[in-house]
Amino acid sequence: xxxxxxxxxxxxxxxxKCRPLPQRTRKKSLCxxxxxxxxxxxxxxxxxxxxxxxxxxxxxxALYGYVAGTLIVKAFQKxxxxxxxxxxxxxxxxVVDSPIGKLQMRGCDHQLILPMxxxxxxxxxxxxxxxxxxxxxxxxxEYLSTCEDMAKLRDGGK
Length: 158
Fold this sequence. Notes:
- It is a single chain.
- The chain is α+β, with helices and mostly antiparallel strands and 158 residues long.
- Helix content is 34%, strand content 24%.
- It has five helices and eight strands.
- The strands form three sheets. The chain has a three-stranded antiparallel β-sheet with strand order 3-7-8. A three-stranded antiparallel β-sheet has the order 4-5-6, covered by helices on one side. A two-stranded antiparallel ribbon has the order 1-2.
- A hairpin with a 2-residue loop joins strand 4 (95-98) and strand 5 (101-105).
- Helix 2 (60-79) crosses helix 3.
- The radius of gyration is 17 Å and the shape is flat.
- The two termini are 27 Å apart.
């Protein structure tokens, strides 16, 4: 049995269907795209700086804000000036470094390709909140609809 996740897109007023999740995610909870499961120097530095500034651990919203800011800065640098159309063009297929690795803004639909993390969630005595264990990473390219599938949806299935 495969589970499909539906994402509502207000920009195109269509339902975007994600591909079925891999078998390795069964019996696990979605732990979001939060930075904790990624054990890299860049992610540890991000988490440490966030904790110093905010006095709490970063969650997915902290990561999303950081990535959004990084994308905007890099896109304006690539565009060469502050101009809406040049910014849009610069964002297409832009790859940026992030605390969870390299991320790409897909050109066909301006969808950021983010990994998702699945695991067994339980309350941690160390942290005092739910954390994931037995983590599985699903790269964005494995669950997002392809650009071709999105084009068909936007053309009414033609």
